[in-house]
Specification:
244 residues, alpha/beta, Rossmann fold, six-stranded mixed sheet, four-stranded antiparallel sheet, 10 strands
């Protein structure tokens, strides 16, 4: 992106949640994660500790392979750590089974992955409608159209993913992640395939949801200018979370 406006509440850059927060929405305590291929073990995260307050926005940077996507997957309950706790709104999601974690995501956690999360045989509108229905939301058709219009896809409602450009598919994924007004949004390189205007529109939608509805946001980016928009800038270094 060539130009971005600062987040209206920007200014924090430390690794602790705002002191005014009575309690964190999500907390990671002593989490470690490694990948194994045969006899080779690659440790990605080591004793990670992180807390995000309700309504807070935080950016996460780090070199490729440092574990950013892994941390987001752990927070979303898409995978479980080898040790430590991942607590969402008082619930240890590590203790939940796959169905329990899926239900938690459907109702409370929006996720935007680099690989995309659209179902290929559904249109953009049908993908968002499905997310709303799974989360128990109302007005699925109307709400889907509203969200897709917010991210600039009002004229792509009936297009399936293969007929969308990479950037359009990413925007549809954002609309899908915001479908049920989640408490937490986890976004991995959310603007990576977007031009400046589209990126600005998507980030305005995300920050607007944080400001107006108390959405907690953690987004991964390689863009320093985009990272600076968050209230807190975090960085993964040597398997742990530090100030950026």
């Amino acid at each position: 992106m060539s130009s971005v406006m600062p987040h209206p509440r920007s200014g924090r850059s430390d690794g602790e949640p705002p002191a005014a927060a009575a309690a964190s929405l999500v907390r990671v305590d002593g989490v470690s994660k490694a990948y194994r291929a045969g006899n080779v073990e690659t440790r990605v995260l080591r004793d990670v500790r992180l807390a995000l307050a309700r309504g807070e926005t935080a950016s996460l940077t780090g070199v490729s392979g440092s574990g950013k996507s892994t941390l987001l997957s752990l927070l979303a309950g898409l995978m479980v750590p080898e040790s430590g706790e991942v607590v969402f709104d008082g619930q240890d999601i590590v203790a939940l089974d796959d169905v329990g974690r899926a239900r938690l995501r459907a109702g409370h956690i929006g996720v935007v992955l680099q690989s995309g999360n659209l179902i290929p045989f559904l249109t953009a509108a049908e993908n968002v409608e499905m997310a709303i229905k799974l989360g128990g939301g109302d007005r699925p058709g109307e709400r889907a159209r509203e969200l897709l219009a917010e991210v600039g896809l009002a004229d792509r409602l009936d297009h399936r993913p293969r007929r969308l450009s990479g950037g359009e598919a990413q925007r549809a994924s954002v609309a899908m992640a915001l479908a049920n007004q989640p408490d937490l949004l986890l976004a991995d390189e959310v603007t990576g395939e977007l031009d400046s205007a589209s990126a600005e529109r998507v980030m305005a939608t995300i920050f607007g949801a944080s400001r107006d509805h108390g959405l907690t946001v953690l987004y991964v980016t390689h863009n320093d200018e985009l990272a600076a928009r968050a209230e807190r800038r975090l960085r993964l270094v040597d398997g742990g979370v530090a100030r950026a």
